[in-house]
Amino acid sequence: MFNFVSLNGFFKGPKGDISWAHGDKETDDYAIESARSGGMLLFGRVTYELMAGFWPTPAAYQINQALAEEMNNADKIVFSRTLHKADWINTRIVKGNIIEEMKKIKQTPGKDMTLLGSGTIINQFAEAGLIDEYQILIHPVFLAEGTPIFHGITKSPNLRLASSRIFKSGKVLLCYEPAAK
Fold this sequence. Notes:
The chain is about 30% helix and about 25% strand. By secondary structure, the chain is α/β, with parallel strands linked by helices.
């Protein structure tokens, strides 16, 4: 999973605001590098609708053509019980029990997968032990209120720091993996 958070642990501000999580050249280059790995992208419905409403647009290509191309060409899965149609290219909808569906998907050979955003899906997958790596990009901002990234988690996985990266902007990427048992 990949998500950004404020320094005090929120991935969304009040009313879902994520305007504070702006990109810059260095983190955009990292995003392009990650996207070029050819992995599959996973989303919950809300994040999917946000991404599908932006990346295929001329504005996305104008802002960052390389990243727009990678996002649009990637294979994508959206987990949703309510979405009936996915218009974004290379997207399929997975309905039903997302934990069981994800277990099946993980058993099939193929590309690496990255769950982007999608806080409720992250929490469900974390609880079920389905996340192999937690990539958290910390932005050097405080939010007065918002939604914590791991809201309502009852089973805390035992993690180890696998890697880290400090960006010139002050953002820090922390990558955690489940610790060996």
